[in-house]
Amino acid sequence: VSLYRLSAPLLICALGISLGTFLLSDQVAPRTNAVANAIWQGQVKGRLDTSTVVEDIWLKGVRQLQHIESYDEADGTVKEVTLIFTDDEMNMARRLEAKGGRFTGGHLVLNEVREKNYHLDEQSGDRYVLYKTHPVLVLDDWPAPPPGFGRDDQNSEELSVAELWRSINRLTAEGFGPVRQRVYLQFKFSFALLPIIMVVVGLPIGFWREKGGSVALGLAAGLLLSFVYLITMELARSLGYSGLLPAIIAAWLPNLIFFLFGAYLFSYVRQ
To answer: Is the pTM of this model over 0.70?
Structure first.
């Protein structure tokens, strides 16, 4: 019986384990991680917070940037709002600073507003500023932030693949670069292939026993390679989070390296 035929059942089992691992990481792990984080923050650290107030929100739009110091999702009230508008050349055109306000009916009603309008003197080429104050200023067609925006209590590990994909698309549309989310999404798929990679690397080690190797030596080599694999994965993850490697390369490069290494070892086993 050829070694390829002997390897087939193990590879099929590894494929089944990989599929099961992916389903667990996508459907079960996010919910259990959310429960675990809630227990850690609430019961262990004593930071249980049922408030609907979201702090320090940044939103980017077309030629505009807004910062909200405090936003209450329950009633739509905001505190310390700063709105910055730019022209086509990204120069400062208008700035609004409000003490408070409220989102209501698709509008933003601001109170105690200080307005700065930046203009260019066509003759001298100098820029000057006009100041205004408004007791109340209403901005039409100004929707409230989406529910939960700006909260940091839901990490990527608490999201399924579909939820993570929607989060990446939303952040991209708003002008942000969700690097960590993209890396984590790719690792959800690549890490699920761990059983297959370990079988590909471990098979030639097991087959070498006929040449005088011992079970203990093969076990030690397998554990060492598993440890190196995990270290490589975490190193690639760190490089991906820092932006030094694209997300797809950071997630799949370790798998490619160890798969080729396993194929290389397999070529030296007597068939």
So the answer is: no
| C-alpha dihedral sign at 39, 44, 50, 56 | negative
Quick one: tokens of 35?
A: 């429960």
User: What is the distance between the alpha carbons of residues 67 and 79, in angstroms, rounded to a whole number?
Assistant: 10
Q: Which two tokens stand for residue 267?
A: 């070529």
pLDDT digits (tens, 9 = 90+) for 23-78: 998 888 888 887 887 777 666 665 555 557 777 788 877 788 888 888 888 788 89
Task: State the residue for tokens 């193990």.
Answer: 10
- Which residues are registered as beta bridge partners of 77? 102
Coil, helix or strand at residue 152: coil
Rounded Cα gap, residues 66 and 56, in angstroms: 11
Give me the sheet containing 92-104, strands edge to edge.
53-61, 64-72, 77-86, 92-104, 107-120, 127-139
The answer to whether the beta carbons of residues 54 and 77 sit under 8 Å apart is no
